[in-house]
Amino acid sequence: xxxxxxxxxxxxxxxxxxxxxxxxxxxxxxxxxxxxxxxxxxxxxxxxxxxxxxxxxxxxxxxxxxxxxxxxxxxxxxxxxxxxxxxxxxxxxxxxxxxxxxxxxxxxxxxxxxxxxxxxxxxxxxxxxxxxxxxxxxxxxxxxxxxxxxxxxxxxxxxxxxxxxxxxxxxxxxxxxxxxxxxxxxxxxxxxxxxxxxxxxxxxxxxxxxxxxxxxxxxxxxxxxxxxxxxxxxxxxxxxxx
Length: 242
Known about the structure:
Blueprint: H1 2-22, H2 39-44, E1 50-64, E2 67-73, E3 78-85, H3 88-93, E4 98-109, E5 112-126, E6 132-133, E7 150-159, E8 169-172, E9 177-186, E10 189-195, H4 205-211, E11 218-224, E12 234-240
Parallel strand pairs: 6-7
Antiparallel strand pairs: 1-2, 1-4, 2-3, 4-5, 7-9, 7-11, 8-9, 9-10, 11-12
């Protein structure tokens, strides 16, 4: 019996050693490969200059004609990848948390800083960001430092979108499809938010939630801090709190 027990223990130790020897190292999102920019270096780079970053997919907006538009982020900041070269098969692999190396050009449109004419490579590693409460930065210049990150805003009041008194409006008012627009206020200042149709379509919870909003509702929201001549976040979640 003792010999059998000793053999079993020895086999167990061998399995542990083999297992430890084949375990992949844990990815550290704070570290960059050689030749890859930190977010600080990216932020300081001149517009239209070539940039190389390592980042993590957080969500996908669209794929069309072998081009993908993707929201990505690392521990220090976020990168909006617009019309990046991408096959349909590659697009399917860009699930939340996927690490990618991106080469492209830093561009700007209506204040939105993005990477264009980009190519990418999928790497080992994963990171999924949690929404950062950015309520206190609404109306302040510092909020631009959070551009494209997954953020949350809390305790907002739904305002009438236009003179009709409706709480929201469709980009395509005839078919009642496409992007949804709505306005919220905080401390006396009004802001315009958007549910981007290609990011969250008509059958999603957030699209339906905005269609059910009423003027005066108190809401918390989450989304990506997109920019269009000012703060214009692409909202992915709406919760009525009062």
